[in-house]
Amino acid sequence: MKKYSSLLLGLGILLFIGCSKDAMNDPNNESLSSQEVQAQMKVNETTEGLDEMLAQLLINNKSGSTNKTSSECVSITFTENNISVVYDQCVIDGKTLNGSIILTAMEGDEEGTTGRFAISFKAFTYNNYVLEGTKSMVFDFSEPRKPTITIDTDMAFVDQDEVVTTHKGSKIFTWHMDNFNTEEPDFTCVGAWDIMHKDITYQFEVTSPLGGKLHCPYIISGVVALEVHGLKASLDFGTGECDQAGTIIFPNGDTKDVSW
């Protein structure tokens, strides 16, 4: 009997040691898996690109665009206190837009260097999501070649099946106009935001400024920290390629290249 007891005890110790080593060697033991990171970035696609587009509207206004511009699918009207944009099934950087966006000036200095806009949506869909809620935009053009635009969001995106995805957070965009037509980012972004989808809250926080280029629908550089239910990882977007790819950085320092 003693021999069997000793054998079972020894086997138990070996199993315990083996499991402990497996846990230590598992890069996802307390982190998001690569599949979970990909899923989180897919959820982020729901809203990705909208804030950049809104910031570009203000950049165009401040750069002296004409009072009214139009194309086959969009009409933009600038007045003293409003920017009104009407889309008719436009496809811009891979996103489909339909309906109206109105930016209304709420406050600002006499020179128009700093101020704030309230952003409202009228029967507006973004990539087939109906937008409900509010956005606000605070701008600072005290450095004309390097303006900053802060966008605060508290919105719901409703899909065709009435599934609601909420987005709350803040992003600060810095535009680098001297970088236009170069390989450097046209704008950088910092901030933090939460996206709730099907009762799961996905958290995002920029730890190294995200970079973007005009007419590129993807982030091209920078690092964002990701978290879901206490599980964490970071995603490094690289150094300039216009693609949906990056490198996951697990909490233990391990890395893995992914695309989504």
Task: Please tell me about this protein's structure.
The chain has 260 residues and is an alpha+beta fold. The protein has three helices and 14 strands. The protein has two domains: 49-175, no CATH class; 185-260, no CATH class. Helices cover 18% and strands 51% of the residues. A 14-stranded antiparallel beta sheet has the order 1-2-3-4-5-6-7-8-9-10-11-12-13-14, covered by helices on one side. The longest helix is centred in the N-terminal third of the chain and has 24 residues, at 2-25. It is globular, with a radius of gyration of 23 Å. It starts with a helix and ends with a strand.
Classify the beta-strand content into a percent band.
Answer: over 45%
Q: Give the number of DSSP strands.
A: 14
Please report the distance between the alpha carbons of the first and last residues.
57 Å
Describe the biggest sheet?
A: 14 strands, antiparallel
Class by helix and strand content?
A: alpha+beta
Principal-axes shape call: globular
Biggest sheet strand line-up: 1-2-3-4-5-6-7-8-9-10-11-12-13-14
Total helical elements = 3
Uncertain spans, ≥5 residues at pLDDT below 50? 1-28
What is the residue-averaged pLDDT? Answer: 86
| Helix content estimate | 10-25%
What is the CA-atom radius of gyration, in angstroms? 23 Å
Number of domains: 2
Give, in order, the helices and strands: HHHEEEEEEEEEEEEEE
